[in-house]
Write a structure and sequence with these properties.
The complex is a heterodimer.
Chain A (H helix, E strand, L loop, with lengths): L3 H4 L10 H15 L3 E5 L9 H6 L4 E3 L4 H13 L3 E7 H6 L2 H10 L5 E5 L17 H6 L5 E3 L4 H13 L4 E5 L20 E4 L4 E5 L3 H14 L4 E5 L2 E3 L3 H10 L3 E8 L4 H12 L4 E6 L9 H7 L4 H12 L4
Parallel strand pairs in A: 1-2, 1-3, 3-4, 4-6, 5-6, 8-9, 8-11, 11-12
Antiparallel strand pairs in A: 5-10, 7-9
Chain B lengths: L11 H26 L4 H16 L17 E4 L5 H11 L39 H14 L6 E6 L7 H11 L5 E7 L8 H4 L5 H7 L3 E6 L3 H8 L10 E6 L22 H11 L6
Helix pairs in contact in B: 1-2, 1-3, 1-9, 2-3, 2-8, 4-5
The chains are: A alpha/beta, B alpha/beta.
Chain lengths: 324, 288
């Protein structure tokens, strides 16, 4: 666990597409390390790989619309000593290639990095076919897999740089829905360590991805109501920072989790497992319930499912049974 | 069980005959392992034995058993991972691990899983078992050689029924697009899959034409002729700038009369008496 004052940033509300940070990091890594290569499935613009292809044409493979092959090709590249970044829309990269992810990457312990682009409900109006809300639950249960959901562009770049020194398969969610910065420049990503972005005594808010800034906003609102909320960025869904969760359960009156995914099986599920086994505590799990989303933009859908600062605040108050 | 020497005769004609005997040893070793484990895939072990013998013992593959992860090695991927007993027997015969270890096939905590695991067993390149995984991995390894400007080659052995998995054809398109002449696909065309003959299940023909249409240089040979296999696999690629595909016409259960061409022997397990009969027919002694 990393403490609050080192990690959190000011309230800047400029918004960023994390794909830009991922793209810059990947190009820098390729410049420094000849093992770095990229594998795409058709679209270079949605995976932000146009520059990469122009700069490193010999280390770029486009397999076309063929995700099973794409992941297997990644495993083969890793067998040959390369470090492939296999980049595709999260919904297809996971669901379409799940057996290859399980066997060719996780079971084999292949040094392949999956960059899951535009996850969650980023493709809002395109519908549930293009949403990736199941990915965290699917990936988290596979042995040997590491699952990271960066909160902002700074953490996206930091997690990318970390992935190159990490030996083994890794799943990184690269957000498309614009987010504000929640980390300072110079932030260092530490696998399996939750970052405490805000100290608090009454309730703990644990979020990742685009829900982190919303959880921090919720904590500020709670403070105006006299409730002290602690805020965690738990970008590392696997491995999980059990100590941070248990400490929160011991020192605050309850935990609210928030994520842009099915709460069952995702970050919420992971936190609930730790609490149930080691320190039962009152909890609320915010995420997508057991349903496919209706039609609407990403922002509409986040609102629809209460994945907003107000939704998190409401859940915290309900948990503590204070306020209206 | 005596240690098998890796001493393939220099003259090609002598070597082919020597390899035929080694292939029969692989057959009986695999059957013994399946008998021991009371589980296994005898039919496919027997159909692929000659191909494996030629690749590993005939000097086709540039591998170093003392350094199984030698970076410049040729890669061999057994896509039909259920042919594990013949594969393990071949790897042991080539010296990747002691022959004694074959006696632990599928035992609790054995390194010899029912399907190969590269993190346990030296010489294994990919964890296979579910079908249609080997060719995409082989394409990736062939692309890696190109990216690193290395001269290693990649060989993948697939079943025929396995080619019903669409991932193979996704990978074939990639192999063609990138002109992977360092890639060779060998199809163990034994015409039987788990449930029935391939042609009663899903028509596989015209298989050569299908690979040709996907941009491969294709040849078809008798997959039990070690002389033909040696000859064809020593002249790669078949055509410059193209991936090669060798369709090895085989017989499922080859060399053992009661198992030949019998779908039930896909995962049939021999009794002690059947093992003795197989030994007689193959001209090999039962070793353990």
């Amino acid at each position: 666990m990393v403490s609050a004052d080192k990690a959190s940033t000011t309230d800047a509300k400029e918004l960023f597409d994390c794909r830009d940070a991922y793209m810059s990091a990947l190009e820098e890594m390729a410049a420094a390390d000849p093992r770095v290569c990229a594998v795409a499935n058709d679209s270079l613009s949605s995976a932000k790989l146009k520059n990469f292809k122009a700069k490193y044409p010999d280390r770029f493979v486009n397999v076309g619309i063929a995700e099973q092959n794409m992941v297997g090709v990644g495993a083969g590249l890793a067998n040959g000593g390369m470090v492939p970044y296999v980049c595709g829309a999260a919904c297809f990269l996971t669901a379409r290639a799940m057996e290859q992810v399980k066997v060719d990457l996780a079971y084999t312990k292949s040094n392949v990095k999956l960059c899951a682009m535009s996850p969650g409900m980023a493709y809002g109006q395109l519908g549930p076919t293009h949403h990736s809300i199941e990915d965290l639950a699917w990936m988290r249960v596979i042995p040997n897999m590491t699952v990271i959901v960066p909160a902002d562009p700074i953490e996206t770049a930091a997690a990318m740089r970390y992935s190159l020194v990490h030996e083994g398969p890794m799943f990184l969610r690269i957000a498309r829905v614009p987010v504000p910065r929640v980390h300072r420049d110079g932030y260092t990503f530490k696998l399996g360590e939750a970052v405490e972005l805000r100290a608090g005594r009454d309730v703990t808010l644990i979020a990742n991805g685009l829900l982190v800034s919303r959880a921090l906003d919720a904590a500020r609102e709670l403070e105006s109501r006299g409730v002290s909320g602690r805020g965690f960025n738990m970008s590392s869904v696997k491995p999980l920072d059990r100590e941070a969760i248990l400490h929160a359960a011991r020192t605050t009156r309850g935990i609210v989790t928030a994520e842009e995914a099915l709460a069952a099986g995702g970050l919420g599920g992971a936190v609930a497992e730790v609490l149930a086994l080691e320190h039962p505590a009152p909890m609320r799990m915010l995420g997508v319930p057991d349903t496919f989303a209706p039609t609407g933009t990403a922002e509409f859908l986040l609102e629809h499912f209460g994945l907003t600062a107000a939704g998190i605040e409401r859940a915290a108050l309900e948990l503590l049974k204070v306020g209206g | 069980m005596n240690k098998l020497p890796f001493e393939a005769p220099a003259a090609a004609s002598d070597r082919a005959e020597w390899l035929q005997r080694r292939a029969n040893w692989i057959r009986l070793s695999a059957m013994t392992m399946n008998h021991h484990a009371k589980l296994g895939h005898t039919g496919g072990d027997l159909s692929s034995a000659d191909i494996l013998a030629v690749l590993f013992l005939g000097g086709v593959l540039r591998v170093e058993p003392e350094q199984p992860r030698w970076p410049q090695r040729d890669r061999f991927i057994l896509s039909k991972g259920h042919g594990a007993a013949a594969y393990y027997s071949t790897l042991a015969a080539r010296g990747f691990f002691p022959l004694e270890q074959l006696k632990t096939y599928m035992d609790p905590l054995s390194m010899l899983n029912g399907h190969p695991d590269r993190n346990k067993l030296p010489g294994v390149e990919a964890n296979t078992g579910p079908l249609g995984h080997g060719l995409p991995i082989a394409v990736g390894a062939a692309l890696a050689a190109r990216m690193r400007r290395e001269s290693w080659r990649v060989f993948v052995l697939t079943g025929d029924g396995e080619l019903q998995e669409g991932s193979n054809w996704e990978a074939a398109m990639t192999a063609q697009h990138y002109g992977l002449e360092n890639l060779t696909v060998i199809v163990d065309r034994n015409r039987i899959q788990q449930g029935d003959f391939t042609e009663n299940t899903i028509n596989m023909e015209p298989l050569s034409e299908r690979f040709r249409a996907f941009g491969f240089a294709v040849d078809e040979i008798d997959g039990h002729s070690t002389a033909a296999l040696l000859d064809r696999l020593s002249r790669l690629p078949f055509e410059a700038g193209k991936p090669s595909c060798l369709i090895a016409r085989t017989i499922k259960g080859k060399g053992v009369s009661f198992a030949e061409n019998q779908p039930a022997w896909h995962h049939g397990v021999p009794t002690k008496e059947q093992l003795a009969q197989a030994a007689t027919e193959l001209g090999v002694e039962v070793a353990w």
